[in-house]
Amino acid sequence: MTTAPAKAGWRFRQPSVIPGFGLTLGFSLAYLTLIILIPLSGLVWRSAALGWADFWAIAVDRRTLNALKISFGTAFLAAVVNVVFGTIVAWVLVRYRFPGRRIADAMVDLPFALPTAVAGIALTTLYAPNGWIGHLLTPLGIKVAYTPLGIVVALVFIGLPFVVRTVQPIMEEIDKEVEEAAATLGASRFQIITRVLFPGLAPAIITGFSLAFARGVGEYGSVIFIAGNLPFKSEIAPLLIVIRLEEYNYEAATAIAAIMLALSFLMLLVVNLVQTWSRKRYG
Amino acid sequence: MADPEIKSYEPHHESQSAAVTESRPVKAVLMAIAFAFLAVFLLLPLIVVFHEALAKGVGAYTEALSSPDTRSAIRLTLLVAAISVPLNVIFGISAAWAIAKFEFKGKAFLTTLIDLPFSVSPVISGLVYVLLFGAQGLLGAWLKAHGIVILFAVPGIVLATIFVTFPFVARELIPLMQEQGNGDEEAALSLGASGWQAFWYVTLPNVKWGLLYGVLLCNARAMGEFGAVSVVSGHIRGLTNTMPLHVEILYNEYNAVGAFAVASLLAGLALVTLVLKTLLEMRYGAELAATRGH
Lengths: 283, 294
Prior knowledge:
Largest sheet of chain B: none
Structural class of chain A: mainly alpha
Order of helices and strands of chain B: HHHHHHHHHHHHHH
Number of strands of chain B: 0
Strand content of chain B: under 5%
Oligomer: heterodimer
CATH superfamily of one domain in chain A: MetI-like
Helix content of chain B: over 70%
CATH topology of one domain in chain A: MetI-like fold
Distance between the termini of chain B: 32 Å
Low-confidence stretches of chain B: 1-15
Mean pLDDT of chain B: 89
CATH topology of the largest domain in chain B: MetI-like fold
Low-confidence stretches of chain A: none
Strand content of chain A: under 5%
CATH architecture of one domain in chain A: Orthogonal Bundle
CATH class of one domain in chain A: Mainly Alpha
Radius of gyration of chain B: 24 Å
CATH architecture of the largest domain in chain B: Orthogonal Bundle
Distance between the termini of chain A: 41 Å
Order of helices and strands of chain A: HHHHHHHHHHHHH
Mean pLDDT of chain A: 91
Number of domains of chain B: 2
Helix content of chain A: over 70%
């Protein structure tokens, strides 16, 4: 790959004395195309080849709709839980000094590092009716494992670091002088938090929410152990894809995957718009 | 708390006015909530893994780990990581060099494409290879005619793993190399170094800790990936079962000790990853600065 033909005033790249542009860009593009782009466009091509009528029939199938509803619904709830608790965790880690803070901080990344299948069986064991947490909840009439609530628990685990790690650096950057200024002007601590601190954090919180949500929608490994996987009740969309594949129903698997991808991208778009709006409003 | 280090970090901590920090009871409540949340959602799952693995004693634990199927799962996981991590390292370095050292049209778009695998469900990452290489797939007939086996075999598992771990190294290196700029390389080149020498003796030492950081995360995900690998593996015991898949099989057979024994190895790997990552952040925080908040 060399520089594109030179139109007057248009350059594919700025001149530079550093060598290796063609080699590194060429290799990167080739690798990206082979590993990611060709396989993904295969999915798009297959679902386009389905035809509109077949595609629609799969999309409005009751089992598909329920699976999508469960995936997006539980991921949404889990992301909300994570926004609340993740923001508190981030605040405590950034603002307070206590012994073991570093360990608590490092622990937040555990869901990134722990394989999802391990998280899945561990959470199931904890929340099963005879588990450490489950046996405390059973007398209260709360069932977690093998219900949609279990899915939420697994997705809270998976999504936590996304919220904390997005909000934390922004909190660290907050200039304390702004808070002091607000205080000298007579604002109460509550007013400072809601009127001064929160607006600055809002874009980061929205980003963290969307990352946790997106990850939760697609999550598979940690969920299938704890969900119980009852069709129409606790069957998530990624699991339905796997089930359709095992039935050699490639069409249905492809269609569900295409819907999931489309919905996820749509959501990311909406989040981006909300973010631009909040930056304009508070920025 | 009269820790001198804490004092020097925040000299006015004790004397801070009430208006810029929360009152003591609010502080206590917030900390209690945070600790309870972290304990229930992070610490307990970790403890339960080791507790269940050792529930029937050390003998049962070591026995579970020495079964031939478990050993072959460990070997396969190591093999898959040993292939996919270096390939993604080469890609990561190459992509970071092109993106960080040069200005060209479409750079932002290329960066977005590199992050794409993070927003795709692992199951879909596996599915795309089934659609490509499966019996009904686009290349299925051709592969069969030529006797090439990709799906339900090691090549498929490696491909799916590369897909899901694709962005890790690149997205650590790109911001880091962008932050460092081109000055050092330009100096080396003007002193007569070849491009290769500039990379090997200047760039690589500059980014080595960031690179290690990316490799750590990439490796943890490569060894732990479940969804994508599950779709392309075919679950053939002793042949195409990675450690996470083996955990699932043992667990579904109600072999709790076996499942948690294998899981404890993966949890150990996660802990080692976290410790090394924290050490890197503590010691070389400045050299990783751009990569915080991953």
